[in-house]
Write a structure and sequence with these properties.
The complex is a heterodimer of chains A (480) and B (462).
Chain A (H helix, E strand, L loop, with lengths): L8 H14 L4 H14 L7 H13 L8 H30 L8 E2 H23 L8 H9 L3 H11 L3 H40 L4 E2 L8 H12 L13 H6 L12 H4 L3 H37 L3 H10 L2 E2 L28 E6 L8 H10 L3 E7 L5 H9 L7 E6 L6 H14 L5 E6 L8 H11 L4 E3 L2 H8 L1
Parallel strand pairs in A: 1-2, 4-5, 4-6, 6-7, 7-8
Helix pairs in contact in A: 1-3, 1-4, 1-12, 2-13, 4-7, 4-8, 5-12, 8-12, 14-18, 15-16
Chain B lengths: L8 E6 L5 H9 L17 E7 L2 E8 L6 H10 L7 H11 L7 H11 L3 E7 L9 H10 L3 E6 L7 H8 L5 E4 L7 H12 L3 H38 L2 E5 L5 H30 L14 E2 L6 H7 L3 H22 L7 H16 L5 E7 L5 E8 L4 H17 L9 E2 L8 H4 L2 H16 L4 H12 L4
Parallel strand pairs in B: 1-3, 1-4, 4-5, 5-6, 8-11
Antiparallel strand pairs in B: 2-3, 7-10, 9-10
The chains are: A alpha/beta (480), B alpha/beta (462).
Chain lengths: 480, 462
């Protein structure tokens, strides 16, 4: 399997923006969206970062509003370009300033060494101090300067990377640190390149004269020792770039006894100066630039994998691997709740017919007593239907009911109303005609409540205005 | 995907309102299943394939209940020729009738069985057996398909033995399965039993059980990681608002602190949602603006007493931190301080921890990176808050991990006793967690370490 791609600033920003947008979406929407994306993913996307990339690429096509990543990446490139230009120009100006020679006062090589070697070594030590502990990089003024000269859109993109507030730092702290360090090293490399180029140009096209001069008055031997130590990196490959004792002695400048500068020796410091600028200026800066770039890549990769919301995203994508849920929505509308004819029973004028549906466990003698008391009437006959009876036996029962009779049907209240019973009631209605009462009496069982709502709802849906459900409590009362 | 219909299929059938859909919801971990007290809620067969990647290992089919079993059986008996032809009669019944006929529910539930699905016949073990069940059991026997009866005790009463005696006359395997309370292990047991219905189903169901076990371990790990992430984010949370020069700083500080606490509450809620998501409880979320998880506020006194460190534990932990600092001073003075540095440090540390018990975070004024000033709240310095958050998260996880997807009630984070959660942890686990929390507070990236410790609490026998 190919190694996972390395995320860029653009990828990091886009992922952060998408995850921030996801916080506003309902979980069901996220789940369905990501399950669809996961099912489209090739099976090779097993690793975390690869899976994130696959998700990110799938989301980029449909992101609305468009994602800022590419623009931020372009803005970052623009900042680097600006810093490189500024650094180069500053380096050139600095070199031109310290190496200015109008033919009267020779160039004090110590000035050039102090700027292009000494100062840079100090800044290098500061770089090392910032790199090692995990602290926020304080080189903001340089970046603020670069950001201010950019156009508005680029500035806003940089603010998204840098973070306008401290709250960003805890998530993007390391990325910001290494990004800012990278930018400063771009400036530093450009500064050294500009300085070196200008130095070489001046050395080539002008006749520079170098001396060394300091109030501290070290002897020639001490200076030679110092320059020998500094020349160690290139002594083997470029021996001429290591100043000799004679050169040092001949180019010492004293304002009280200026003397005459040997023209053959006057330019002798240039190899040492150029070598110092390369080995103590440019090369270390190129190394720190490479270090910053590598650490930035690592910080982006780490933050990419650990952004807030990534864990939840992985959960949703992983959940799609083992699935047990339905893949299609539930068909059909939910059962409509009918309103029942829960009216008070009307006392019929003739004896009622009582039907025990599905052999409700009540003695035949008890049922007429309960029902009769409830309706204030006699029970004419007790019939049976449903349960183990066949459909033909049910029809025979129906035929034995007199036209116009009121009918009470005793049912198992703890069971749901079935269509088979409603079919039977329709058949009874055809025999007894319109206007005659059919009362359903759902009986409870010890420890079992009647599902009164289901019975009332079924009766309501039937559309029969003379069909009613008797309140189970009323049946209980009548039975006592 | 594997070609549909080649994997084992199981049609869940029975009388209306006996918990068929609840059993499917529980086994399929799908809380989108329409479940209601109203019978006839399921009107069409719905499939729940169990897939690992692109392979379907088995499919559950939820069906509408029998409504006219006696008449359907009467039709079949009318057309019966010999006992050996009964399965064909049932298939003919389904072909001849359809959705527009008098038997739409019977056709819907018998169609998958005619195509080879196994039968899972569901009854309610809390109501007595009745003769009206026999026609539907007879029809199912006529299909000749492998079958299992599930006794689902919905109510309080117990008629399980009565049902078992009746069902064993029609079904080779009879099991009791409570859809509302069955934990993960019981669901796996049932799936293994499905594999016993036919020899060629043993392999796929065995593979499915293994995949579900592995998935369960992954979910527990993901949940532990989600909780660790949540704790880490809450510990590192800072919020900031830019301020102008002439603003009332004290008022803004109070407002910012309120916002900070709300952010913590919100993060906790998101963490819970993530855990619910991991265990496929997608619909256990806000409904019409109200929370479906009933629990005390994160910052209530009861919550902190139940889940936080005791005063003694707080002081001891604060003292330990102070003693380390004081000990450092003693070492620097070459012991000349006579170890007073350690004692003073310990006392100061303990006092600070006790006094800081009710302070969640500090609010300070600081500079903006690109100019201006801002008010910053956080990060959390309170040593008790991560324990409270962790305790609540563990309790929530415990309830969610085994909650049946058939349940439609709200999740109540009720506490059966007042035992302090931290005190109930084994000492070594408590110390491991405290180490991880201390390192998190210092800003070390030890989320994985904390997740490992949480996973140890969840699955101690792994």
């Amino acid at each position: 399997m190919k190694s996972a791609p390395t995320p860029t600033i653009a990828d990091l920003l886009d992922l952060a923006v998408l995850l921030r947008r996801d916080e506003e979406l309902p979980r069901q929407v996220l789940r369905e969206r990501d399950q669809a994306i996961a099912s489209d993913m090739a099976s090779g996307h097993a690793g975390g970062t690869r899976r994130l990339f696959a998700w990110l690429n799938a989301m980029r096509d449909t992101a609305n509003p468009p994602l800022p990543g590419e623009h931020a990446q372009s803005a970052s490139r623009l900042v680097r370009l600006v810093l490189a230009l500024v650094g180069g120009i500053t380096g050139m100006a600095a070199a031109a300033a310290v190496l200015r020679y109008d033919g009267t006062h020779p160039v004090n090589v110590l000035y050039a060494l102090a700027l292009f070697v000494g100062l840079q070594l100090l800044v290098l030590v500061a770089f090392a101090a910032v790199v090692l502990p995990r602290k926020r990089f304080e080189a903001m003024p340089l970046v603020a300067m670069a950001v201010r000269i950019l156009p508005g859109r680029s500035r806003r993109a940089i603010e998204q990377i840098v973070g306008g507030t401290q709250s960003h730092l805890l998530v993007f702290g390391q990325v910001q640190k290494w990004l800012l360090l990278q930018w400063t090293q771009v400036f530093a490399v450009a500064f050294n390149v500009g300085g070196l180029a200008t130095t070489l140009a001046l050395i080539t096209f002008r006749d520079l004269a170098f001396v060394w001069s300091t109030t501290l008055q070290p002897d020639v031997a001490t200076v030679h020792q110092v320059t020998s130590v500094l020349s160690w990196p290139w002594a083997a490959i470029w021996p001429e770039a290591s100043p000799s004792v004679e050169l040092i002695a001949a180019t010492r400048y004293n304002r009280l006894t200026p003397g005459t500068l040997d023209p053959d020796m006057a330019g002798g410091w240039w190899p040492f100066l150029v070598a110092s600028m390369v080995f103590f200026g440019l090369l270390p800066r190129m190394c720190t630039l490479m270090i910053s770039r590598c650490r930035l890549k690592a910080a982006i990769a780490r933050t990419f994998a650990t952004l807030p919301g990534v864990s939840a995203l992985h959960d949703r994508l992983e959940a799609a691997q083992v699935r047990t849920q339905a893949t299609e929505p539930e068909q059909g509308a939910a059962v409509a709740t009918g309103t029942s004819n829960h009216a008070a029973p009307v006392a019929p004028s003739a004896p009622m017919t009582l039907i025990n549906w599905a052999n409700v466990p009540i003695a035949d003698g008890d049922a007429p007593r309960v029902v009769g008391r409830k309706f204030g009437t006699e029970i004419g006959q007790v019939l049976h239907a449903g349960g183990s009876a066949s459909p033909e036996q049910d029809q025979s029962t129906v035929r034995s009911i007199a036209s116009g009779s009121a009918v009470a049907i005793l049912v198992r209240g703890w069971e749901p109303p079935m269509l088979e019973l409603l079919d039977f009631i329709t058949d009874v209605r055809k025999v007894i005609g319109r206007g005659a009462t059919i009362a359903l009496l759902p009986l409870a069982l010890d420890g079992h409540a009647v599902n009164a709502a289901a019975w009332r709802s079924a009766v309501g849906r039937s559309g029969d205005p003379w069909l009613m459900v008797i309140d189970p409590a009323a049946i209980q009362e009548a039975g006592t | 995907m594997t070609a549909p219909g080649t994997e084992p299929q199981f049609a869940v059938v029975g009388h209306p309102n006996k918990g068929k859909s609840s059993i499917v919801a529980s086994l399929a971990e799908d809380d989108s299943v329409r479940i209601a007290a109203e019978p006839g809620t399921t009107t069409h067969a719905r499939r729940y394939p169990m897939c690992v990647g692109t392979r379907t290992l088995y499919t559950l089919i939820d069906t509408p209940g029998f409504q006219r079993a006696r008449k359907a059986l009467a039709w079949m008996k009318q057309h019966e020729t010999t006992a050996s032809g009964r399965a064909q009669i049932v298939a003919r019944f389904v072909r001849q009738h359809g959705s527009g006929s008098a038997f739409p529910d019977e056709c819907e539930l018998l169609a998958p069985i005619v195509e080879g699905a196994g039968i899972l016949y569901v009854v309610d073990g809390s109501v007595p057996f009745g003769e009206e069940y026999e026609p539907e059991m007879e029809i199912l026997r006529w299909t000749g398909s492998p079958s299992m009866a599930l006794i689902n005790p919905i109510g309080e009463s117990d008629y399980v033995d009565e049902w078992r005696r009746a069902l064993e006359q029609y079904f080779r395997i009879v099991r009791v399965f409570d859809a509302m309370t069955a934990e993960f292990d019981k669901r796996l047991d049932l799936l293994r039993a499905f594999g016993q219905m036919r020899d060629e189903w043993r392999g796929p169901l065995g593979e499915a059980v293994e995949a579900l076990e592995a998935d369960r371990s992954r979910r527990l790990r993901r949940a532990a990681k989600a909780i660790a992430d949540m704790v880490a984010e809450m510990l590192s949370l800072t919020i900031a608002e830019p301020i102008e020069k002439d603003e009332n700083i004290a008022l803004r500080k109070t407002q910012l602190l309120h916002r900070f606490k709300d952010k913590l509450r919100h993060r906790e809620m998101r963490g819970r949602e993530q855990v619910e998501e991991i265990f496929s409880h997608v619909r256990l979320s806000r409904r019409e603006g109200e929370f479906d998880v009933v629990d005390d506020d994160l910052f209530s006194e009861g919550t902190w007493l139940r889940f936080g460190l005791s005063l003694r534990q707080l002081v001891l932990m604060g003292m330990a931190g102070g003693a380390v600092v004081g000990g450092g001073i003693d070492a620097a003075m070459g012991g000349a301080s006579l170890l007073l540095g350690g004692l003073i440090g310990a006392t100061a540390g303990g006092a600070a921890a006790w006094l800081g018990k009710d302070r969640i975070a500090e609010v300070k004024v600081g500079p903006l990176p690109l100019g201006g000033r801002e008010l910053r709240a956080g990060p959390v310095k309170n040593v008790n808050l991560p324990w409270v958050v962790l305790g609540r998260a563990m309790r929530h996880l415990q309830l969610i991990a085994d909650r049946s997807h058939a349940r439609r009630d709200e999740l109540r984070m009720e506490h059966t006793d007042d035992t302090n959660w931290v005190s109930s942890l084994p000492v070594d686990r408590r110390k491991t967690i405290e180490r991880s929390l201390s390192r998190l507070r210092r800003g070390d990236a030890v989320v994985e370490e904390l997740a490992d410790a949480i996973e140890e609490l969840i699955s101690p026998n792994r």
